[in-house]
Amino acid sequence: MIEALQFDFMRNALVAGVLVSIACGIIGTFVAINRIVFISGGIAHAAYGGIGLGYFFRFNPVLGAVIFSLAAALGMGIVQRYTRQRADTIIGVMWAIGMAIGIILVDLAGGYKADLMSYLFGSILAVSSRDLLIMLLLDAIIVGLAVLFYKELLAISFDETFATVANVPVDAIYLTLMCTIALTVVMMMRVVGLIMTIALLTMPAAISGLFVKDMKKMMGFASILGMVFTTVGLWLSYFLNLTSGATIILVAGAAYLLSVAIQPLLRRARADRAEEAIGLKPSSLQRKADKRSRL
Amino acid sequence: MKHTDITDTELEAIAIQHLWAGYDHEIVLEDINLSVKELDFIGLIGPNGGGKTTLFKVLLGLLPPMRGEVRIMGMNVIKGRRYIGYVPQTVEFDRDFPINVWDVVLLGRLGKRRLLQPYTDKDNKIVAEALYDVEMLDLSDRPISELSGGQKKRVYIARALATEPKILLLDEPMASLDPHAGSHISEILRQLNERMTILMISHDISAIASCVKTVGCLNRQLFYHGEKQITPQMLQLAYKCPVDLIAHGVPHRVFPNHAIEEGRND
Q1: According to the model, what pLDDT value does residue A250 have?
Q2: For A243, how many CA atoms within 13 A lie in the half-sphere containing its CB?
């Protein structure tokens, strides 16, 4: 296990997993509790248009993805807020158009497209030190925004009407959140690829939300879960010689299914404890004692 | 009510004059006139779709009126709404939202703090007082998802109180509560009415009846005369059809004796 660490690419990959997990935990929590998984998927897929733009005009496709995902985030955010009907249809259309533009532009660009697949399916083993720096910067922006606007973000997520009446600039905060989703998506593109971004963004937060009932703690726990999933996924992909992005997603998916399965048991245990505490139900110790005395 | 003189305006918490409101081409409220004086406790009843929620949206500045004027504490709605504590019927996702009671009520302080400005000790003190007022202080670290309907309602009342309102707006405060929780809420509201104006809406007559000072009926038009009794005529006008009066435990100051009621009382 340790010998793998002597490779630069493995070290970088592990660090990238940790950095991405921080952004994922924070933004994924907002995505989960605001129920905007669909929009996030749209942003991720529309970002592919930017990849095509980069290939066609011969600049860094990552920059193209940043531009396209930000534009998609603002567009979809505005559609979601201001159109009273069919918001999901319009978002679905933007999702498809973004992707189609990307594919056509890549076609037109011609030439050698070796790393095209890496944008779609991730290439965490190809993360450079400069990529890590960019990820660190994006993390700083995302953590900074989440800390600075925590009370407003909590307010619009929990009860938007109440936030509006309190004269919170709801639209501005919401669109800022959309933009941070876009930045997170671009960051994750490196690790699991655009196609599976949505899974890694939502699963740690979804698991965390099953066990933690506080937004701050939910973010922290989701970030830690993300780190565990990316690390475990990376090792597995290394030893089993599998695609790293997909392995990470399967690890996260297995954890998600497991936690959904054990959740009812945990809830029953918690209810039992609560009933014991107020004396409605004898504790398991008491039950055992009762049994023994009967014998 | 058609003419308000100057001394009247000073005491008016809410003044609605010739208000028309609705959505797109559908008019929901027709020529509403209402003068809510300070320390009034008004209950408005009406059928679902009668415009109760639309009226609240206008008062909260969420829906601009088509015609007419609304003043809150003598100001326009956007300025005046900071004097309103709003208690919604339900909060959409509160069944699994990761937030505890204290943090919900702390959101009531949001309007007093600008962006980037953290909450202060004063905010904490006000939140504690608000939770005390609704008897929820001992459950303040409980997740909102683990509360009963009545407890949640009290938390939302506390959140409204934390805004230090002069007016409390309540949307169906007794809906889907058991009778015990309902009477607890109306007792809390009666106490709060000693220091603030309250306007509440409901489709349930008995819920309104147990605590308000005056009642009105709303169904597109408003039938309100500042009286303590709902007359059969008001109900007929509001519901535009004969009304069942299911009046268990309703004090007689609201319902005068009349044939409809006597026949159906349980």
Answers
A1: 95
A2: 15
SS3 of chain A: CHHHHHCHHHHHHHHHHHHHHHHHHHHHHHHHHHCCHHHHHHHHHHHHHHHHHHHHHCCCHHHHHHHHHHHHHHHHHHHHHHCCCCHHHHHHHHHHHHHHHHHHHHHHHCCCCCCHHHHHHCCHHHCCHHHHHHHHHHHHHHHHHHHHCHHHHHHHHHCHHHHHHCCCCHHHHHHHHHHHHHHHHHHHHHHHCCCCHHHHHHHHHHHHHHHCCCHHHHHHHHHHHHHHHHHHHHHHHHHHCCCHHHHHHHHHHHHHHHHHHHHHHHHHHHHHHHHHHCCCCCCHHHHHHHHHHHC
How many angstroms separate the CA atoms of A148 and A169, rounded?
Answer: 14
Asked whether the beta carbons of residue B88 and residue A159 sit closer than 8 angstroms, the reply is yes
Q: What is the percent of chain B with per-residue pLDDT over 70, rounded to a whole number?
A: 83
Across the interface, do A161 and B96 touch by the CB < 8 Å criterion? no
User: Among residues of chain A, what percentage have pLDDT more than 70?
Assistant: 91
Axis crossing angle, helix B149-162 with helix B121-133, rounded to the nearest 10: 140
- Which of chain B's residues have a Cβ under 8 Å away from the Cβ of A155? 107, 110
Q: Does A154 touch chain B (CB under 8 A)?
A: yes
Of the residues B110, B159, B168, the best mutation for testing chain A's interface (the one with the most A CB atoms within 10 Å of its CB) is: B110
Our CA-based measurement puts residue B44 at a distance from the nearest CA of chain A, in whole angstroms, of: 21
**Chain A residue closest in CA terms to B84:** A165
Q: Does ipTM top 0.85?
A: no
Q: Give which of B96, B115, B157, B169 to mutate to test A binding, by max A Cβ within 10 Å.
A: B115
Closest to B164 in 3D by CA, of B123, B120, B200: B123
CA distance B107 to B131: 13
How distant is the Cα of A187 from the closest Cα of chain B, in angstroms?
A: 26
pTM of the full structure: 0.84
Do A120 and A49 form a contact (C-beta atoms < 8 A)? no
When pLDDT is cut at 50, 70 and 90, the band that residue A115 belongs to is confident
Interfacial A residues in 47-76 facing B (CB < 8 Å): none
What domains are there in chain A, each with its CATH number?
A: 3-294 (1.10.3470.10)
